[in-house]
């Protein structure tokens, strides 16, 4: 998939075997020739992946490739190349990465050494990779930013919910969960607190910021608590769309039991 500032702008998989737009502005701005050439390029890369996976694997394994560039834009609109990335991972671990400053491949594991030596023996390949990252990638990035500038400016505030359920690991406790969903950009601050004091992160289970699949994001944090203490907890959330942070508390009401006792009930 192609990503621009955390937004998916195009997509390809082995089932459809077609590069397709994921943003309306990409569909409107890019000519059909772009999608046809992109489809052929992705199909070629798919075949390249299959060949290399056959070399690497005996059972089920995953080879991933990530490449792109980062730029800086001054107040006058001038673009400056900052850095480029072209890297491969195998089964979730680093396998090969390109050092664009020195035009060479880095092999962090012994298994990658043969591939590193083979690729470094083809100077034109390294020159092309460096040129793509520093020049062609920047041209594409600048063009996409221009086409999608209105969409990229859009921000979406999170919906925040705080709720409890019985703990699955300790039935004498509750699991308190804070969920923020539907937000963009993905930068967000969330803290579970007791008596306004943030809980240490090593005590909290976090999903990490995850994409919802539609260009927005979600984050979930949980902690097991004593049921009688749940009214002492809250969830502190701050996002770029807020004028000030919000604090969600566990809501409590007073219930009248059949024995005429008043009891607090917290949702």
From TrEMBL:
Q: Please give the GO cellular component terms listed in this UniProt entry.
A: external side of plasma membrane; extracellular space
An example GO BP is:
immune response
> Which residues belong to any copy of the Ig-like domain?
158-240
Keyword terms: Glycoprotein, Immunoglobulin domain
Q: Tell me which SUPFAM superfamilies the record gives.
A: Immunoglobulin, MHC antigen-recognition domain
Q: Which domain of life is it from?
A: Eukaryota
Q: Which InterPro entries match?
A: Ig-like_dom (IPR007110), Ig-like_dom_sf (IPR036179), Ig-like_fold (IPR013783), Ig/MHC_CS (IPR003006), Ig_C1-set (IPR003597), MHC_class-I_related (IPR050208), MHC_I-like_Ag-recog (IPR011161), MHC_I-like_Ag-recog_sf (IPR037055)
- Do you know which PANTHER family this protein is assigned to? LOC571647 PROTEIN-RELATED, MHC CLASS I-RELATED
- Family per record: Belongs to the MHC class I family.
Q: What is this protein called?
A: Ig-like domain-containing protein
Q: Which organism is it from?
A: Ameiurus melas (Black bullhead)
Ranked from the top, the taxonomy reads:
Eukaryota, Metazoa, Chordata, Craniata, Vertebrata
């Amino acid at each position: 998939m192609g990503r621009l500032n955390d937004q998916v702008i195009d997509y390809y998989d082995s089932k459809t075997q077609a590069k397709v737009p994921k943003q309306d502005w990409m569909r409107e701005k890019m000519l059909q020739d772009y999608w046809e050439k992109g489809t052929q390029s992705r199909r070629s890369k798919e075949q390249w992946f299959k060949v290399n996976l056959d070399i690497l694997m005996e059972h089920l394994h995953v080879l991933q490739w990530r490449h792109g560039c980062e730029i800086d834009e001054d107040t006058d609109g001038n673009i400056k190349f900052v850095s480029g990335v072209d890297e491969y991972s195998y089964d979730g671990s680093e396998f090969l990465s390109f050092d664009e400053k020195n035009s060479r491949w880095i092999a962090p594991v012994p298994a990658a050494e043969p591939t590193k030596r083979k690729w470094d023996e083809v100077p034109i390949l390294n020159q092309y990779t460096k040129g793509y990252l520093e020049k062609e990638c920047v041209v594409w990035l600048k063009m996409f930013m221009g086409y999608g500038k209105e969409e990229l400016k859009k921000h979406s505030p999170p919906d925040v919910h705080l709720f409890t359920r019985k703990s699955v690991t300790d039935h004498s406790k509750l699991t308190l969960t804070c969920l923020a969903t539907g937000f963009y950009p993905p930068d967000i601050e969330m803290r579970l607190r007791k008596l306004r004091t943030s809980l240490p992160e090593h005590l909290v289970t976090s999903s990490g910021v995850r994409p919802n699949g539609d260009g927005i994001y979600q984050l979930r944090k949980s902690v097991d608590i004593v049921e009688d203490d749940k009214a002492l907890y809250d969830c502190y959330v701050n996002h770029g769309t807020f004028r000030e942070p919000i604090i969600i508390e566990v809501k409590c009401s007073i219930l009248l039991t059949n024995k005429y006792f008043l009891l607090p009930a917290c949702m």
